[in-house]
Amino acid sequence: MPASATLSHTKWDGKYHVVFIPQYRRQALDHALRRHLGDVFRSLAEQKAWRIEEGHLRAAHVHMLLSLPPKYSVAQVVGFIKGKAAIPMARTFMGRRTNYTGHHV
Q1: 45 and 77 in contact (C-beta within 8 Å)?
Q2: Which stretches of the chain are DSSP H helices?
Q3: Cα(23)–Cα(42) distance, rounded to whole angstroms?
Q4: pLDDT at 26
Q5: Which residues pair with 26 in a beta bridge?
Q6: DSSP 8-state class, residue 99
Q7: What is the pLDDT of residue 13?
Q8: How many whole angstroms separate alpha carbon 29 and alpha carbon 51?
Q9: Looking at the whole model, is its pTM more than 0.85?
Q10: Which residue has the higher pLDDT, 36 or 44?
Q11: Residue 68 and residue 100: Cα distance in Å, rounded?
Q12: Residue 103 has what pLDDT?
């Protein structure tokens, strides 16, 4: 991506360093899960035309440098990525096939 990207009426260069952690800061992200999540994060970013410039997945946290157009808020992007990444993670690594709407886990 060039130094600044363009939309119809704007030029922008919005890069955000985002860090998020698993619930209760558990060491929950093992090697196989980290490899899987990297692919999931990249595919989700491609769907919305965002760009993950750089990323590091550790056992207790995730670092990402995101390049976002100004029409998206950072909170909206992080919420989308975390929410949509949880579904394939639960299906692949926890054996859940359906969404448990209304149930307490």
Answers
A1: no
A2: 31-47, 74-93
A3: 22
A4: 67
A5: none
A6: -
A7: 86
A8: 22
A9: no
A10: 44
A11: 31
A12: 41
Q: Are 11 and 1 in contact (CB under 8 A)?
A: no
**Residue with the two structure tokens 């709407």:** 101
Cα 11 from Cα 54, distance rounded (Å): 22
Six-digit token pair at 81? 């990525």
Specify the DSSP element, H or E, that contains 65: strand 62-67
> 8-31: buried (b, 16+ CB within 10 Å) or exposed (e) per residue?
eeeeeeeeeebeeeeeeeeeebee
Question: β-strand 51-57 against 62-67: which pairing, if any?
Answer: antiparallel
Reading the block at residue 91, the tokens are: 């299906």
Residue type, 68: L
Nearest-Å Rg of the Cα atoms of the chain is 15
3-class DSSP state for residue 70? coil
Spatial CB neighbours of 57, under 8 Å, sequence gap ≥ 6 = 29, 34, 37, 38, 63
